[in-house]
Write a structure and sequence with these properties.
The complex is a heterodimer of chains A (276) and B (308).
Chain A lengths: L8 H5 L12 H12 L4 H26 L2 E2 L5 E2 L1 H22 L1 H10 L1 H6 L5 H29 L11 H21 L4 H17 L11 H9 L1 H14 L4 H29 L2
Antiparallel strand pairs in A: 1-2
Helix pairs in contact in A: 2-7, 3-4, 3-7, 4-5, 4-7, 4-8, 4-11, 7-8, 7-12, 8-11, 8-12, 11-12
Chain B lengths: L5 E10 L2 E11 L4 E5 L6 H8 L7 E6 L4 H10 L1 E4 L11 H11 L4 H14 L15 H12 L6 E5 L7 H16 L3 E6 L2 H7 L2 E6 L2 E6 L1 H8 L3 E6 L5 H8 L5 E4 L4 E5 L2 H10 L6 E6 L2 H9 L6
Parallel strand pairs in B: 3-7, 3-8, 5-6, 6-7
Antiparallel strand pairs in B: 1-2, 1-4, 8-9, 10-12, 10-13, 11-12
Helix pairs in contact in B: 3-4, 8-11
Classes of the chains: A mainly alpha (276), B alpha/beta (308).
Chain lengths: 276, 308
């Protein structure tokens, strides 16, 4: 006769609190990523840097000759390349961060069994989540920093506040990497992974990247304003043209929330998958 | 008696409606070499995962190194070495880096990790392969590297889930030799296997698990004594005659088992049984007297039908 008692659901959720989730050692996960990156193909990494540069040349300087200068809401007049460059910067931060946090995470999760191995050490799911997200955002930051230099050289930064683009890009990449990893952790097939691309391409084209949001009917504007890339584009554009307003704080808040949500979801999912 | 490193009472795990582990009681003493034997799907791996603090129990009590895995998972895992059933080496890193990086996951300083990595490469006979990619190692080498990796945090308990499944005989013997050395050094070993020779080689004590429950417990010799006879006589009369011959020899030995291809007689003295058989005027096409093994115990306890 069994004398054991079924434990209540409540105790399962609260087991060990933060100590059971986090060993304070996310750094070891990050440095593992960097070490593994040494063996990856640098051509792929470098090509990611050139992508926004090509867009800037073709759209900004090529197509831009037909567009002329842009008059902003603030009355400020800027060249077309200076209008789209910050958007391309935000996009490259997004692409870089999403690349490592989606496909690479998917492979490590399902084929490499990397997280299973990590979780049998004293690492907790939060260590793994933070370490992997930090690694993923590095690529986004790297691309963005490179492109910011290009912008500076081409005279597209209109204000000293452009310096703040770097921390802003860090936040943006963190947001995309953490949400990307969270979403990926729920995916189990390649077909599902394709949905990420299906969402990202229109987001890239329509998030006030190449023309202002005002061309759309109002309901569509709301939809786009709910998307993360629009906030990223606006935040970076505010900083590079030096037009900070209350919206800037909102954009920052959006990404802080997105990053937090991503970390929480990823941690929960990793725990559910590997510490069942 | 020293405090057990693992103690479980009524340990239970459900996955939805499936009962993977159904009230298991285990106690493992420090330095002991403890085996979980059972067919596939018996609940061995699930038990290992619960003890390894990577799976939560549905019910029952569990203490590993005196701690509750539910609340002290990271602390417990810090002092365990885990060799999973399928190798999960980091294929993006080279052999030596696998050991160093894994050590870093435990928060061990890099210099210490590097020194241990070199010692463990020697232990695992992989010094030559330090800079090689993991994918270029043979199955046996990968397994040895996985074991070396599990030792990088100097664990009190080494947990091995089917350590030699899928390896060729040479590789298995090399591995057993390494595990035996660890045992001699006083490392507590907990292993699952469905190889009886492995259990006899390595385990001081073992439990036979089937359908999530413990069917028997003891040292290999005790189990053989309790659940089998000292010797087994294998008689082959030809597929068509086995049944009728078995009727004639009924009563010989302790127990008779009829299989499609042969008749087994469990007895203390196999040669005596063989003489009685020929005195009955029966002439098997082949006969064999052998010592009873853990395999006989295993098959008796878990049945011969295939579980899939």
């Amino acid at each position: 006769m069994s004398t054991t008692t079924e434990r209540t659901e409540g105790t399962r959720e609260n087991r060990g609190g933060l100590r059971a989730l986090y060993a304070g050692n996310a750094g070891s996960v990050l440095s593992r990523g960097l070490l593994a990156a040494r063996s990856s193909t640098w051509v792929v990494v470098v090509s990611g840097f050139f992508e926004p540069v090509f867009f800037l040349l073709a759209m900004g300087y090529g197509l831009g000759t037909f567009v002329g200068d842009i008059t902003l809401d603030t009355g400020q007049q800027i060249s077309y390349p200076a209008y789209i460059a910050p958007a391309l910067l935000a996009v490259s931060a997004m692409n870089g961060a999403v690349y490592d946090s989606t496909w690479n995470v998917f492979f490590k999760m399902h084929f490499g069994k990397l997280y299973q191995a990590m979780m049998s050490t004293s690492l907790g799911p939060l260590d793994v989540a933070l370490g992997e997200i930090s690694y993923a955002l590095l690529r986004g930051v790297l691309y963005a920093a490179g492109f910011l230099t290009v912008m500076q050289v081409m005279g597209l930064n209109q204000s000293w506040t452009a310096v703040l683009t770097l921390p802003a890009v860090l936040l943006i990449a963190f947001g995309f990497a953490s949400l990307g990893m969270a979403i990926t952790s729920y995916m189990s097939t390649f077909q599902q992974m394709d949905w990420i691309n299906i969402v990202m391409l229109p987001m890239f084209l329509f998030s006030a990247t190449f023309y202002p949001l005002t061309v759309y009917p109002v309901p569509l504007q709301w939809l786009i304003q709910a998307m993360p890339l629009w906030h990223a584009v606006e935040l970076v554009r505010n900083l590079t043209i030096g037009a900070l307003d209350s919206g800037t704080a909102l954009h920052v808040g959006y990404f802080v929330a997105m990053a937090g949500l991503g970390v929480i979801l990823t941690t929960r999912r990793l725990r559910a998958l590997f510490l069942d | 008696m020293p405090e057990p490193v693992i103690s479980a009472t009524g340990l239970t795990k459900h996955y939805g409606d499936l009962v993977a582990v159904d009230g298991i009681d285990i106690e493992v003493a420090p330095g002991e070499s403890f085996g979980l034997l059972g067919p596939n799907g018996a609940g061995k791996s699930t038990t290992m995962r619960m003890v390894g603090a990577v799976s939560t129990r549905t019910a029952g009590e569990l203490r590993v190194l005196g701690l509750d895995p539910d609340t002290h998972g990271p602390e417990i895992r810090a002092r365990l070495g885990v060799v999973p059933q399928e190798d999960n080496l980091d294929t993006e890193l080279r052999v030596r880096d696998n050991l160093i990086v894994y050590g870093r996951y435990f928060g061990i300083p890099r210099a210490v990790c590097a020194q241990r990595a070199d010692e463990l490469l020697t232990f695992a006979q992989l010094e030559e392969k330090a800079k090689v990619k993991v994918d270029d190692l043979s199955g046996g080498m990968k397994r040895r590297l996985t074991i070396a990796r599990a030792l990088v945090n100097d664990p009190l308990v080494l947990m091995l889930d089917e350590p030699t499944t899928g390896l060729d005989p040479q590789a298995r013997h090399v591995l057993w030799d390494r595990l035996f050395r660890l045992k001699e050094r006083g490392t507590t070993l907990v292993l699952t296997t469905h190889y009886m020779d492995e259990a006899e080689q390595l385990c001081d004590r073992l439990v036979v698990v089937d359908h999530g429950r413990i069917m028997a417990e003891g040292s290999p010799a005790e189990l053989i004594r309790q659940y089998s006879s000292r010797e087994v006589v294998e008689l082959r009369f030809g597929a068509s005659r086995n049944e009728s011959a078995a009727e004639q020899i009924a009563g010989l030995g302790d127990r008779i088992e009829i299989l499609p291809d042969r008749v087994l007689v469990y007895a203390a003295d196999g040669e005596a049984v063989l003489e009685q058989v020929s005195r009955l005027g029966l002439h098997p096409t082949t006969s064999l007297v052998r010592r009873s093994s853990l395999e006989d115990v295993f098959l008796r306890l878990t049945g011969r039908s295939l579980i899939e």
